[in-house]
Specification:
The protein has helices spanning 192-197, 202-217, 222-232, 235-238, 256-272, 276-287; strands at 7-8, 13-14, 19-20, 25-26, 31-32, 37-38, 43-44, 48-50, 55-56, 61-64, 77-80, 85-86, 91-93, 101-104, 109-110, 115-116, 121-122, 127-128, 133-134, 139-140, 145-146, 151-152, 157-158, 163-164, 169-170, 178-181, 186-190, 253-254. It is α/β, with parallel strands linked by helices. It has an eleven-stranded mixed β-sheet with strand order 3-6-9-12-15-18-21-24-26-27-28. A nine-stranded parallel β-sheet has the order 1-4-7-10-13-16-19-22-25, with no helix packed on it. Strands 2-5-8-11-14-17-20-23 form an eight-stranded parallel β-sheet, with no helix packed on it.
Length: 296
């Protein structure tokens, strides 16, 4: 273990083959697993639990106390899995009494200037691009990619295999397997490319597309859409959309273009249900330049 010009507290548990570059500070009650590299000017504070073969780049601060006025000094932790890469100037805050820990899963990449606030849970194999900022209690599912300069409101849940476009401001839950983009952040389709990379078959992807057509394109509200999904979709797949049930935040909605498409679909259904006399009345009103009656 190299430690020139660095400070490692005697009560810290650092594996023998960990490389500690100059000007690193490691406080007490810290555990660092085998094969990890800690770059210059990194600060690791009390309560950090860092797995094997991680790389922590210069300027990062791990397990600082939460930026939460309710924090009363409880002995909380930051738990980081194996093979995690933490790039320059990342900040990861420890948990509060709500969950007592902030968690980052295995094989996750945190690019430069990412901020992970207290009590967040990041899944395995995730990528958080530069300047992604997560407020407290945010949950991110496995294999999810958060674009650069994205911001996430506290308590938001992001499903598995999601990709969020750069610059998004996210204040609602994002269900699994989708792309989220635009301003405000809206549903932008299924993450089919990511799913193929993860080994999903065309049949499985089509099943996911069917679910989100019901949820977003057919014009139902969420509760009605879930009833249709419950009736039409196999039990194994219904388990995958459980994020929508009991969410603290509502799910992201449609873009303006998609909303217009749903409006046209509803209008067509409404017109198709009219009797011949009602159609004649509509034509008469239009000819009188009084316009159509308000769409119900």
């Amino acid at each position: 273990m190299n430690k020139p010009f660095s400070y490692i507290h005697p009560q810290a548990e650092v594996a023998d083959n960990v490389v500690v570059e100059p000007f690193v500070t490691i406080s007490k009650d810290v555990i660092v697993g085998e094969g990890t590299w800690i770059g210059p000017h990194v600060t690791i504070m009390e309560g950090a639990r860092i797995g094997k073969n991680c790389k922590i780049f210069p300027g990062s601060v791990i397990s600082a106390i939460p930026q939460d006025l309710k924090y009363k000094g409880e002995k909380s932790q930051v738990v980081i899995g194996d093979n995690v890469t933490i790039r320059e100037y990342v900040t990861v805050n420890k948990g509060t009494e709500a969950s007592m820990k902030t968690v980052i899963g295995n094989n996750t990449l945190l690019m430069a200037y990412v901020h992970i606030a207290h009590d967040c849970v990041i899944g395995n194999n995730c990528v958080l691009a530069n300047n992604a900022n997560l407020a407290g209690h945010v949950e991110v599912g496995d294999y999810t990619i958060l674009g650069g300069s994205t911001n996430f409101q506290q308590f938001v849940k992001i499903g598995r295999h999601v990709i969020v476009s750069g610059g998004c401001l996210v204040n609602k839950d994002i269900p699994p397997f989708v792309r989220a983009a635009r301003h405000p952040t809206t549903y932008a389709g299924v993450n089919s490319i990511g799913l193929r990379r993860r080994g999903y078959s065309t049949e499985q992807i089509n099943e996911i597309l069917d679910v989100y057509r019901i949820l977003y394109i057919r014009g139902f509200n969420t509760s009605t859409a879930l009833k249709y999904i419950d009736a039409d979709i196999e039990q194994e797949f219904k388990r995958r959309i459980k994020l929508l049930d009991g969410s603290r935040q509502s799910a992201v909605g449609l873009s303006l273009q998609s909303f217009f498409a749903v409006f046209v679909l509803r209008l067509r259904r409404w017109l198709a249900a009219l009797s011949e006399t009602e159609v004649d009345a509509l034509v008469f009103l239009y000819q009188q330049k009084k316009g159509f009656p308000f769409y119900p």
